[in-house]
Amino acid sequence: MSSFSFFFYTFRACERSTKQAMGRLPVSECSRMIRRGGIGDHTGLDYWHGMLPNEDTANLLKNSGQFLLRALERNGANNIILSVRWGKNIVNTVISKCANGGYECQGTFFTSVKDIVDLYQVRKRQLNINGVKVTLDMPVRRKRWELRHKMVKLEKELGSGSYGVVYRGTLTFPAKKPFVVAVKELTEMGVEASNALWKEARVMQMYDHPNVVKMYGVANDYMPYYLVMELVLGGSVDDYLAKKGSKVSVKARTQILYEASVGLEYLHSKDCLHRDIACRNLLIDKVVKVTPIVADFGMTRHTTNYKIDPNKPMNLRWLAPEVYESAVVNKSTDVYAFGVTMYECFTQPYSIPYADWKADKVYDKVVNNGYRLKPPDLMPRKIGDLMEECIGPEESRPTFTVVAVCLKTFLRSS
To answer: Which residues does the UniProt record annotate as the domain Protein kinase (predicted)?
Structure first.
């Protein structure tokens, strides 16, 4: 086994033709205008951002006068939205498509969406959006992580869950060769599922580390969304340990934990809580070397303290006991979960924590009676001492910086 490396509106509409500086046209003349001017494809504009949520729109529009185009689903239909930052607010107006193919706003018609933008940006016309007079000063261009659906090709289904399906696929950037990726296709179209995917994307795009799963972006031209990530071919650490069993040496298991701790140290240095650390969320890459990678950012939060909803499902076996009383997770609760993951990594044969107990017994023993896991027989004494520190009292738990140093020291001496 080779060395390891850890990855882990109110809305109104506006349009106008600038080809011949057309004035207001009644709806009946819309078709005549279209035949004369033709229709441009607004989805090809570099400031078209697809189905971009409100939160991401606000994040992109930082300065007054900046604007972008996006789509927003409303009443079962996709509307073209012109969003503008004006002062501290984001104002939005709908660009409506004419039945005959053009575009309309406030009684004015245009051959293309670009004509609308040109009128208000190039000619510096003021635009009245819900009583607010704005000017379009600077378009915000599509970011690298905002992918086009046509850039992504789905090939083979790898798995599925309540959120949707994960595929092996390829991603092709302009003027580049295609490369293999993992694609999470959101098939559950509810608001909660959509929000969860975008939260995951926001978190992942902030990080760049060899031991953290890389996110390339979100394809958001239309539904279903694609979350496009690095493909880690070797599967999860729990499956790896279950299949390889006694063939996985003590040093190799320690190396997995060390590389995981390095990835988690990086995340914590960015004030990111993972909140779902377990062997099932460490992935192994067989392409270059066996590489555990921190994965599954669905529960991750960019914060140092986070109030959880106790009524929602929780990973009971990895959850620090104090969370049941405080309902707050923080860096030390991530360390506790890592301590439980250390236990997992040294079970032989592999088993989940408290494998013989049902959830209610785990709760009673751990929360009510203070029971803690004991180091497995395979685990070296020094690693066992570190594990017990990680799952010990909250105030005594080490940081991931300390954990990484301890594991690295052990590897050098073994």
So the answer is: 152-411
Q: Domains plus CATH for the chain?
A: 27-139 (3.30.505.10), 146-230 (3.30.200.20), 237-413 (1.10.510.10)
Structure confidence at residue 77 (pLDDT): 66
Model confidence pLDDT, tens digit, residues 310-357: 566 578 899 999 998 888 999 999 999 999 999 999 999 999 999 999
Distance (Å, whole) CA 84 – CA 110: 20
pTM of the full predicted structure?
Answer: 0.76
* Binding-site entries: 184
Integer angstrom CA distances of residue 180 from 147, 154, 231:
15, 10, 7
Q: Which residue from 161, 200, 155, 194 is spatially nearest to 178, judged by alpha carbons? A: 155
**How, if at all, do strands 226-230 and 179-186 pair?**
antiparallel
Asked if residue 87 has pLDDT above 80, the reply is yes
Annotated binding-site ranges for ATP: 184
Helix (H, G, I), strand (E, B) or coil at 95: strand
Per-residue confidence band for 101, with pLDDT thresholds at 50, 70 and 90: confident
Cα 269 to Cα 371: distance, rounded to the nearest angstrom: 31
149-157 contacts at long range (C-beta below 8 A, 24 or more positions apart): 149/219, 149/221, 149/222, 149/226, 150/221, 151/219, 152/181, 152/183, 152/219, 152/226, 152/228, 153/178, 154/183, 154/185
